[in-house]
Amino acid sequence: MAKQPSTQAYDFSLKAAGDRALRNAAALGTAFHFDVVTCVMIAVLLVTGYLVLPPLYSVVQTSLFTTRLTGEIDQFTLQYYRNLLSELRVLGPLLNTLYFSVGASLLATLLGGAVAWIVTRTDAPLRGLGYFTAFASFGTPFILYTIGWLLLLGKAGPINSWLKAWLDQSGPVIDVYSLPGMIFIESLLWSPFVFLMLAAAFRSMDPSLEEASAVCGARIWQTMRRVSLRLMLPAFFSVVLLIFIRSFESFEIPALVGLPGDIRVLTTSIYLDAQKLPPQYGNAGAFSVLLMFIVAATLYVYFRITREGDRFHTVTGKAYRPAVIHLGRWRYIAASGLFLYSLVLLLLPFLIILWASLLPFYIQPSFEALDKFTLKNYITALHFPKITDSIKNSILLGLGSASAVMVLTLFASWLLVRTKIRGRWLLDLLTTLPLLFPGIVMGLAILRFYLFVPIPVYGTLWILWIAFVTRYIPYGIRYTHSGLLQLHKELEEASYVSGASWSRSMRRIVLPLITPSFLGGWIFIFLLSAKELSMSVLLVSPQTPVVSVAIFELWENAQVGELAAFGVIWSAILVSVAIVYYLITRRYGVQQS
Amino acid sequence: MEEIALMNRADRQKILLEGAKKEGKISWYTTLIVDQVVRPVKEAFEKEYPFLQVEFFRGNAERLVQKMFAEYQAKRYDVDIIDGTVSPTMVRRANLLQRFYSPALAEYPAELKDSQGYWGSTNLYFFATGYNTRMVKPNEVPKTYEDLLNPRWKGQMMWSTSRGSGAPIMIGTILNTMGPEAGKAYLQKLKAQNIAKSTASNRQILDLTIAGEYPLSLHIFNHHAYISKSAGAPVDWQPHEPVTATIQTIALTKNTPHPHAAMLLLDFVMSEKGQKVFQQSNYLPAHPKVPAKQADLKPGGGRFKRAYYIDPDVQYDKGNDWVEYFNNVFMK
After folding, report:
1. CATH number at residue B184
2. In chain B, fewer beta carbons within 10 Å around the N or the C end?
C-alpha cells in the first residue's frame, strides 16, 4: 500500500485542488453545511437509538437476571456468566467454534470474491450466471437448503453412492456430519452475500491504479495481488468479520449438521439448555454480551485500519469505469469455474429439493422412483392456510425493510465515512449491535416493548417491519460503508464548490455513485427478510401470517416432500422478484461490466 | 367468568348459546397442526354454531405461552383457549388458567383430565421406534428396549433433542418405568450405542430413516410412521412396552374474553362428535369410546397393550432433569 509513488503523485494535484476548493467552500457556507450535518447526525442517532436500545437493554438484562415463569425480571445473578466461563474452559467446543467460524468466513469470502471478480472485471462468458445464482440461491429457504445438502451428501445420498461405486469402497466416502461438512454448507450459504458486496466494490474501483501497475510491467496476477486486492481490504474485512460473527453465534448448521456427528460448538449447549422450563435466555444473553465485547474490540482495530480512509478511495473524479481484464484462453476456465459454482451452490441442492417435492415420500434418486412422481405435495402446499396472505405480507415486509434499512444506513455511513463529527463511534457501535442479539431475545424484547408502549403496532405488520429494520441495520451498513469508503470526497467537495446544497450533492453525486452498493444491499436485505424466522414466530398474529413461519411449521410437522414443494414455490416467487429487480437495475448501471 | 366456566345446570347450553351469540368469536392459541386438524375442527364447529368464528394462532408451546404471558402483563386479554402437551401446565403454574366444567369430561378416565378441572384432553401421542423395512429384516426388528442395545445398531440410530417429544421424554419413561437405578444402568449402555442426535423434529428424523440415512429412528410418533407406510414408504413402527404416551391437553384462560363461546368450543372438541373430527384427521382421539382411524395405533388396538401416560405436571416438573440428564450423559 505504501509503495505507490506514481499514483500518489497523480492524485496529488486533484487533491490539492479539492482542498483549496474546500477551503473556499468553507469560507462561504460553513455554518449552513455543518448545521445540516449535525441535524442528520441527530436524526440518524435518534432513529437508530430508538430501534436498537430497547433490545440492547433487554439482552443485557436477560444476561444478568433470572426471570419468573411469566417473564418478569426476578433476581440479579452472575450464574449465566459463570456458565459461559465453564463452557469456555472446555477446549473442544471453543476450538470447534473457532475452526467453524474462521473456516466458513474464509471459504465464503474466497468463493464469493473469486466469482465477483470474474463477473465484474473479466471478459469471461456466462457472467450473468453469477448474479442469477446468487439471487436464486439466496431465495431458497435456509432450512430447505440445508436439508437439500444433507440429502445429497448423506450416507445414503447420491454423491456417496457414486463415490462408493467409483472408488470401490464399502462405507460412505464423505461424512457430511463433520466439521468440514459444516464449514462447506455454511460458507455456501454466505457466499452470495460476499458476492453481492464484493461485486459492488470491484465495480467501483479506480482503474488508474491498475493501469499504472500494468504500465510498470506487472502481470495480471501481480496487479491483482499488489493493487486490486489491497484496495479491497476494507470490503474484505467487512465481509469476513460479518460472516465470522454470524457463524460464531449460529446454531442452525451446528445443530443440523454438526450435532449428528457429535461436533459440539459453543452455541450447542446454549441451545439445548434453552429447552428448560420456564424458559431462561440468560446463557444466550451472556454469550451475546461476550460477543459484543469481542466485536467492539474488532471494530476498534478496523477503525484504526481505515482511519486513513483516503487510502481506500477508489472512485475519484476521473473516468472510473473499471477496465475489463482480457483473460484470453483463461476465459473459458473462468467460465467453467462460474458454471461449477452455480452447479454446486444452486443447481444440485435445488434439483434434490425438486426431486423430493415430486415424490410421495423420499426415495434416493433412481429410475425406479420416476413412476412414483406426483403433484400431491404441491396441492397440499397450495392449500396451506392463508398462503396468499403470507406471500403478500412477506413481500411487503421485504420491500419495506430493505428500503428503510438502506436509506437509514446510507445516512449513517455517510456520517461515519465523510464527517469528523463527534459521537461517530457511538453510531458505529449502535449500527453493529443488532448483529449480536439472539433472535429470540430480540423478538421477545420487541414484543414486550410494544405491548407496553402506547404505539399501536402490536399484532400488525408494522411490528414485524420495525423488528426487521432493526435486525438488518448491520448488513445495510456493511454495504453502504464500504461503498462510501471508496468514493473520494473530492466529488462531493466539487459539488459544494459549485454551489450545490448538501441535499443536492447527496442526491446528484453520492447517491448515483453509490448505487451499486445501495442496490446490492437492498436486494440482499429483501431476500434475508423473506427468511427471517426467530423474531417472526413471536411477532406474527393470526391476521399477519408470513412465509418463513409457514415454512417453519412445515419443517416441524410436515413430511419432507411437502416442505420441499412449498419451498420450490416460494423460491420461484423470490427468483422472479430478483429477476425483475435485475432487469430494472441493469438500466442504472449496476450490472454493466 | 368463573360462574360460566363452572356452570353445571339444566339450562347450561341455553345460557352458553345466548352469551356466545353476543361474543361472536373465540381466540384459540394452539400447538396442533393447522392444516391437518385445526382447520377441520374449526369448520365442523362453525357448522354447528354458524354465528361463531374461531380464530387461531399456531406456535410451539414455549412461544404460545410467552406470547400469552407478555399480553397478560400488558393487560391485553386476547386468548380464550390454549392447548399443548405442556403449555396449559405452564399457564396454570403462573396462575392464569380458569377451572372449568364440561359434560364431556365425565366420559374420560382420570389420567386424561385434571382432577381440579383445569384441563381436559383432545388427543394422544404414542411413541415407537421407526425402522426402514428395506434395511431392517423382520426378524431383526428390535422388539424391546434391551434389543436396542444389540451391537448391530451401533451408530445406526437417530433421535431428536426435543424436550417435548424427543430423547428427554424417552429418558423420562425409562427412568420412571425401570426405576432410577436400573434405568440409569440401561441408559449408560444405550449411550455406548452412539445414537446420532439432531434438533430436527421427530417427523424429519423419521424421514431420514425413510431416506435410508439411519435404519432406526428412536421415539418417533407411531401415526407418522403409519401415514408414511400407507403412502408406500419403506417404513414401519415397533412399540416397546410400556409405550410412552403424551397427552394433548386443552384449557381455558383466566381472563377469557369470550367465556360462553370458549365453553362451547371446549365442549365440542371433547365430545364424541368433535373427537370424530380428530379421528378423521388421522389424529389419535383421547375419548375412550372413539377409536383411532387405524385402530392399532392406540393401546388395545392389537399392536400394544400398555401405555405409560406422562402426566403434564410430571413432564413440566421432571422435564428439566431429563434435559439435563440428556445433556450430561449423551452430549459428552
Report:
1. 3.40.190.10
2. C
DSSP one-letter string for A198-238: HHHHHHT--HHHHHHHHHTT--HHHHIIIIIHHHTHHHHHH
C-alpha cell recorded at residue A49: 437509538
Residue carrying the nine cell digits 434439483: A351
| One-letter amino acid of A346 | L
B:215-274 residues touching chain A, CB 8 A cutoff: 228, 231-233, 235
| B227 shares its domain with B277 | no
* Selection from A91, A192, A145, A521 nearest residue A352 by Cα: A145
Q: Identify the three-state secondary structure at position A69.
A: coil
β-strands B25-30, A73-76 pairing: unpaired
Task: Give the residue from B28, B62, B72 with the most A CB atoms within 10 Å of its CB, the best one to mutate.
Answer: B62
State the ipTM, two decimals: 0.85
Same domain (yes/no): B44, B30: yes
Domain of residue B178, residue span: 126-244+300-330
Scan residues 70-129 of A and list those with Cβ closer than 8 Å to B: 70-72
Q: Which residues of chain B are within 8 Å of residue A361 when distances are taken between CB atoms?
A: 207, 210, 228, 231-233, 235
Distance, CA of A154 to chain centre: 27
Could you list the pLDDT tens digit for every one of the 593 residues in chain A?
A: 333 444 333 343 444 545 555 555 554 444 455 677 888 889 999 999 999 999 999 889 989 998 888 878 889 999 999 988 988 888 888 999 999 999 999 999 999 999 998 998 888 888 888 888 888 887 788 888 888 999 999 988 999 999 998 998 888 889 999 999 999 999 999 999 899 888 877 877 767 777 787 788 877 778 777 777 777 777 888 789 889 988 988 888 998 899 999 998 988 878 787 788 887 788 888 988 888 888 778 777 776 766 655 555 555 555 556 677 788 888 899 999 999 999 999 999 999 999 999 999 999 998 888 989 999 999 988 887 778 899 999 999 999 999 999 999 999 998 888 888 877 878 888 898 898 887 878 888 898 889 888 888 988 999 999 999 999 999 999 888 878 877 777 888 888 888 888 888 888 888 888 887 888 889 889 988 888 888 888 888 888 889 988 888 888 777 888 889 999 998 888 888 878 877 777 666 544 33
A361 touches chain B (CB under 8 A): yes
Residue A396 C-alpha, separation from nearest chain B C-alpha, in angstroms: 21
Q: Could you tell me if B304 and B176 lie in one domain? A: yes
What are chain A's domains? 5-586 (1.10.3720.10)
Please name the residues in contact with B220: beta carbons below 8 A apart, sequence gap of 6 or more.
B127, B128, B129, B130, B202, B203, B205, B206, B209, B237
Mutation target vs A (from B29, B42, B58, B93; most A CBs, 10 A cutoff): B58
Residue A538 to residue B67, Cβ atoms within 8 A: yes
The answer to whether B330 contacts chain A (CB < 8 Å) is no
If asked whether residues B64 and B165 sit together in one domain, one would say no
Question: Other CB atoms closer than 10 Å to residue A152's CB: what's the count?
Answer: 20
Judge if B78 and B151 occupy the same domain.
no
How many structural domains compose chain B? 2
CB contact under 8 A, B211 and A156: yes
CA closest to A534 among chain B residues = B63
Check B211 against A154: CB less than 8 A apart: yes
Same domain, B53 and B113: yes
Burial class (CB in 10 A: 0-12, 13-18, 19+), A337: middle
A 224-263: CB under 8 A from B: 255-256, 259-262
Which chain B residues are Cβ-neighbours of A456 within 8 angstroms?
Answer: none
Q: Residues B188, B275: one domain?
A: no
Q: Which of residues 138-157 of A touch B (CB under 8 A)?
A: 147, 150-151, 154-157
Inter-chain contact A155–B232, Cβ cutoff 8 Å?
Answer: no
b/e code A425-442 from CB counts within 10 Å (16+ = b): eebbbbbbbbbbbbbbbb
Task: Report CB contact under 8 Å: B231, A278.
Answer: no
